[in-house]
Design a protein that fits this description.
alpha+beta, 6-stranded antiparallel sheet, 7-stranded mixed sheet, EC 7.2.2.12, elongated, Alpha-Beta Plaits
Length: 717
Amino acid sequence: MPDTREWLVTGMDCPACATKIKGAVAQLSGIESVEISLISQKLRVTWNGLSGMAPDIEGRVRSLGYGIEATGKASDLSSSHTDAEDEAEETGVPWYRTGKGRLVLLTGVLLVFAWGATSVLPDIFRAWPFVVACLAGLIPIARRAFAAIRAGQPFSIEALMTIAATGALFIGAAQEAALVVFLFAVGELLEGVAVSHARDGIRALGALVPKTAMREENGVTKEIAASELVPGNIVLVRPGDRIPADGEVISGTSGIDESPVTGESVPVTRGPGDQVFAGSINDEAALRVQVTHAAAENTISRIIRLVEEAEESRAPTERFIDRFSRWYMPTIVVLSALVVCVPPLAFGQLWSVWIYRGLSLLLIGCPCALVISVPAAIASALSVGARHGLLMKGGAVIEATAGVKTVALDKTGTLTRGQPEVTDIILFDDVSENEALALAAAIESASNHPLARAVLRRAEGLNLPSVQDSRAIAGKGVTAVLDGKTVTVASPRHAIRDGALTGDAAAQAMALEADGKTVAVLYSDRALALIGLRDEPRQDAQETIRQLRHLGVTPIILTGDNQRTAAAIASMLGTDYKAELLPEQKLEVIRALATQGPVMMVGDGINDAPALKQATVGVAIGSGTDVALETADAAILRNRVSDIPALIRLSRSAMRNIRQNVSIALGLKGIFLVTTVAGMTGLWLAIMADTGATVLVTLNALRLLRTYNSGDARTGS
């Protein structure tokens, strides 16, 4: 029976590290699958049930120079965090206390000492301090190189560095060899800092959930670990506290700051029956909340898991770079060998000159900048998206979203609020608006129909007359006796049939229906009022359509609602529509739209799941069903439709960043390739170019974290 376990791996500072570990572990006998996340530092391995595999896996990872600590069987993980992860997530450790930081300091001090010694030592000994400085930094690198070779990876970055630095020592270029090793150590340190920044957003999410909770048990409140909460528990959340688990408010009403989870800056009022997220902040009054999800399944844990899993879904560009680097490094090694051998053997050139140039070329061949160019930008985009409630399940989704040409939007609950509201009240026979609303609300008070609830919301605060007898008439409406008089709320056709709606009143009712509104007629022997209701567009729906068109994307509404209502909403928003669609018909429309280019489908319900799956990119919005969230490629946590163009803008920014990174990496390497072969640049400039490109690429990727903010989603900037 297969066994799956999970470890925490420390010391990974670039995608090449993750690839190296994955390749080395995968070569062990009996291994079925290996998953590794650079962001979460997790290694998950499945093997065929052979005993004693765990020590072999740990030994293989340690031999490559990385730390590893078991977190347990994957099936036994009951929460989103373990003690090992908490230890790894400690912040505030200075760079100079890390292993790579200490190596930089050691080689830097030795290098400075060597330069100082050149003024006092005899010529014959002046190279030796540089040899010591070089070996001090090279030995740890060489160990990792040999471990990688034993694991079947001969063309690692460490192997190229070891060959180049050792060769430089043999041809008497000790000073440059020492400088090269120092710059390589600096580059690795900077990569670690960059990856740490990318992890910060995910660490911050994990830190949002409080460690403890006030659980009510038999009328007594007791403080327990939040990880011990299970569905059904009741917790007390005091003003100023963070909510410890996803749940439903059972008593109390308060303003909730959901910005830590969804990025929504305006506090929302939550009361009995409303859902709340773990990590949100209770601003005003005490709440009693019934837990609906265990710690491992709360919203924040799911966000973290989605971001971690997203690393496995790599963008096509990233997969191409990975394939390219596999033959790129061996090609550089062969080219370096040719540069070393051909000029001396074929043209009688000096060996020392061409060995030096060949070694310089070898350093230029280090693909650090190229390998990190795509995943660094993807990690930044995933991190900043998660902070603003925009979740994307991997680089492939980011790349697909950036190329979207059409956005198909579900109407109900996506473009509209998802619940009807009273939009018009037309009065007859000297009845006031409050009187008409009070009568209608009193009659509808026993009904749970969405239209009835809309009338009751509009009549909130009014004194309702007492109802002596109320009954629903199937397919017609509701009738009741008030003060000895029978009053009915029904559709226009039933009011016409009863003779209560005639002439101008009937014409007005038809006009409201032509606008896509549902009309309820309040009447006794004659019409007293017409009440128009409609599921109105969200406040930001029209602006969303404008922003999509500005981005060059064509919006279209797909809905199962009737033609009249769909036409009215589409007319208000200024977009095309297709109405009265069953789920399978939505699927066919998506397929047809896909023939014109990549399609994004946005929805929030179970009936949207097939279309979400069929679309190039499926996006679940707001508090969409679990089915929609699991089926979709991306999710928008804020109940705000304007985040759809924000998602596209973020994806396009990420892809633009990737193109810049690849250009920087290949451009610098191309320039120094020519200058090195021509003898214009040497070893230390070669490694400076590689390290410089890595730094530039990393800093460019980190720009996504600093320049993208929630204002982009609202303003379209």
